[in-house]
Amino acid sequence: MPATPRHQESAQAAPTHSLRALDPPIISASASPKPRVLLVSHSYTAAENQLNLEHLGKHCDLLSVVPEIKSDAGLHPDRSSSLPEGPGLVGKRSLPYLGSNRFISPFGAELRRHSPDLVNVEYDPWSPLTLETIALTRWHAPGAKLVCSVKKNTYLTKARPKEWVKRSLHHWAAERVDGYIAASDSVRELSIQRFGIDPERIHTCHHLAVDLEQFQPEPHAHTPVAAPAIGFVGEWHERKGVIELVHAAQLLADKGLHFELRLLGTGPLRHWLKMRAQNRPWLKLAEPVPHRAVSGFLRKCQIFAFPSRALPDHQEHDAHALMEAMACGLPSVVTESGIISELVGTDCSIASSMENHQELANGLEALILDDSLRRRLGQAARARALSSFGLESVAARRAAIYRRILSS
Hints:
Blueprint: E1 4-5, E2 36-40, H1 50-56, E3 61-67, E4 89-92, H2 108-114, E5 118-121, H3 128-140, E6 145-150, H4 160-174, E7 179-182, H5 185-195, E8 202-204, E9 229-233, H6 242-254, E10 260-264, H7 270-277, E11 283-286, H8 294-299, E12 303-306, H9 320-327, E13 332-334, H10 340-344, E14 349-351, H11 357-369, H12 371-388, H13 391-407
Parallel strand pairs: 2-3, 2-5, 3-4, 5-6, 6-7, 7-8, 9-10, 9-12, 10-11, 12-13, 13-14
Antiparallel strand pairs: 1-14
Helix pairs in contact: 1-13, 2-3, 6-11, 9-12
């Protein structure tokens, strides 16, 4: 099956499956008093993500409880597991627990002091932290409404005892949660179909936005180049389609096309990639960099590849690297996995399946050879980022959801 262009519609047209189609209307912050919101999430231990809180704080009287997460820095070595400090941020230590999801030191004092109208916990309904948040809220702020953010595009059925426990906890939480925010339409549909959530109680909004001032196109992005650079940012793992991407690039090199494949990241395929880069001058490996340097890497590319695989236990949950590449005005070759098709719509990428390397190669070849196609898709990608991914637009949509839940 040939690669399918996604540029039949204008950059201003919104596809019917767009995230925007399910968003509530944006309500001006001046239309009513700011709601008092307490947010529980580890996402904001990363300094770059705290910009989301700054913009959400324009629409809400916001206090964020940030749990400690002990993990390596991943793609961004500037990240630390230490708890952040700052106005509106309260750090909490993890308590001993077997597993990746943990309880944290109680935050009842913060609930009493802030007296929120709404508490938003950004974890699955069966997560220990969600259960802890529900219990603490009902005890210390019984008048607050509870909102659970769900992000996973994949639900993997576990062995029967674990499955029963997970479903039991979910149903217990569902009776005590007033609304849900899904990170994508596919997450929303999964939640409705798998767990029977009332469609009227679950709303769609991006989890994290993109800083459109930092991630913007190179001033001379559309100048023709002899050897376009294809960029990838992410974990070097089989589920990210990295092996298929290298094999597809090999097909292009065998045809005599001039390009570079630049991979930024780290992961279990590190040794495999280093071995192949030794005798392939077109394959360039970049070590992890601080997040503030990712935009510089992307601006030196002309094409972005995001061939993530759709597996029984993995689909793309947020594809934030793709959002950042689109903000930089890069045309992309993508696969159908989780949130990806919702992000790119129909006008700023070339779709490819992972059925064979040739299809992925065809999409890359089309962009390597056609400067005008790269320019058209790249401009549409930037336009989509401006309308959907920016810090202020995502914050306003989330605040509108809060207001809708509070008024229901």
